[in-house]
TrEMBL record:
It comes from Aegilops tauschii subsp. strangulata (Goatgrass). Keywords: Membrane, Transmembrane, Transmembrane helix. The keyword rRNA-binding does not apply. PANTHER family: PHOSPHATIDYLINOSITOL-GLYCAN BIOSYNTHESIS CLASS W PROTEIN. This is GPI-anchored wall transfer protein 1. It is found in: Membrane. Its main location: membrane. InterPro entries: PIGW/GWT1 (IPR009447). The chain crosses the membrane at residues 20-44, 72-93, 99-117, 138-157, 169-189, 235-253, 260-280, 300-325, 337-357.
Length: 367
């Protein structure tokens, strides 16, 4: 009986921690290729579907028959989505990992040929054939959740390349994009991006209460089953739910008009990076931990500034691209060009900062 009590709940905890430790991530070029494949697959799936035609044909029938056909249609759409979106992403992240560049180039080529073909076959403007940018944002958010779920479930298996997992200190794997992508995705559709700044404290606390609850639930559950948790990721007690709650609290306390969120966000990130270069990075990457709550969770606490800066930039992007009332009449093609220019600029800036300022670090949320 005494031997059973002394037996750890998770005897393979150390081995599992070593399996996801001391990783350096992948190259920015491969991350860019993977980041291209996921939306490309989603775009091809959208173009291959005939949702509007099928729905119109269903509505012409009587209600009982329409209800039956609706069920069949949505089930078949779910199966097609799995085969054309989920399965390809799963394969790219596992057994086809060595074909990443070829797959990315092939998908971009197919999309380019399709666009040229459609334009040559139609005299209508290109923007009339494209869905709204808000629909694109929904697709982006779904893609973030899908990639996150696939990565979390696959990371414990050897078939998932180690370079895709979370980097230990410096470097970036595809899993390192998840937290930042969630922050930006939330910012694009946030109340701040829609310029709804009047929010009572009770409503603000109510909105973050699920995040706080999930944060404590994760802390209690992982501690209760002795689940492997890398302390260097967020700290002893901290997790990403607490980070999201902290960013939401900061945004509620310091109210900034969405027009100026981008500038403030860049200033926050620049100031945080200067702080890192003046010694904070050495403290965050060291094994030094004081007994207080901040010292125990230094990675999670200090990274709030980086996530908050990203959130403010995301709010600014959401406001100017999707929610600004003065831009309702703007041509969609001009908005698409803005998205392409911003995406390219951010990638170039990331490469420059990674090469000449400081390596990418998810642990510190800085460059």
């Amino acid at each position: 009986m005494e031997g059973l009590l002394d037996k750890p709940l998770n005897p393979n905890k150390l081995l599992k921690e070593q399996f996801v430790s001391n990783l350096t991530g992948s190259s920015l070029l491969e991350i860019a290729a993977l980041s291209t494949i996921v939306p490309a697959v989603v775009v091809l799936r959208k173009w291959s579907s005939r949702d509007n035609i099928r729905r119109d044909s269903v509505k012409k029938n009587d209600d009982a028959l329409a209800g039956h056909k609706d069920g069949v249609y949505y089930f078949s759409a779910l199966v097609i989505d799995f085969l054309t979106v989920v399965l390809p992403i799963l394969l790219i992240f596992t057994i086809l990992a060595e074909w990443t560049y070829i797959c990315a180039i092939s998908l971009v080529a197919v999309i380019s040929i399709y666009i040229l073909f459609k334009r040559s076959q139609s005299h209508l403007k290109a923007q009339q054939h494209l869905p709204s940018l808000r629909a694109d944002i929904s697709s982006y958010r779904v893609s973030v959740v899908l990639v996150t779920c696939v990565s979390i479930l696959a990371v414990d298996f050897k078939i998932f390349p180690r370079r895709y997992a979370k980097a230990e200190t410096y470097g970036s794997g595809i899993m390192d994009l998840g937290v930042g992508s969630f922050v930006v995705a939330n910012a694009l559709v946030s109340r701040q991006a829609r310029n709804i700044t009047s929010m009572r404290w009770k409503a603000a606390l109510k909105s973050i209460s699920p995040l706080v609850f999930l944060g404590f639930a994760r802390l209690i559950s992982t501690s209760g089953v002795d689940y492997q948790v890398h302390v260097g990721e967020y700290g002893v007690h901290w997790n990403f739910f607490f980070t999201l709650a902290a960013v939401s609290i900061l945004t509620s306390i310091i109210r900034i008009h969405p027009k100026y969120c981008g500038i403030v966000g860049m200033l926050v990130l620049a100031g945080y990076q200067v702080w890192l270069n003046f010694g904070l990075n050495e403290y965050l990457t060291s094994d030094e931990r004081s007994a207080d709550i901040i010292g125990q969770n230094k990675e999670g606490v200090y990274s709030i500034f980086g996530y908050w800066g990203m959130y403010l930039i995301g709010v600014s992007l959401g406001y100017f691209l999707f929610h600004d009332l003065s831009s309702k009449g703007k041509i969609r093609s001009s908005q698409v060009v803005k998205v392409w220019v911003l995406a390219t600029s951010f990638w170039i800036l990331a490469i420059i900062l990674d090469s000449y300022v400081e390596r990418v670090s998810r642990r510190m949320v800085g460059y």
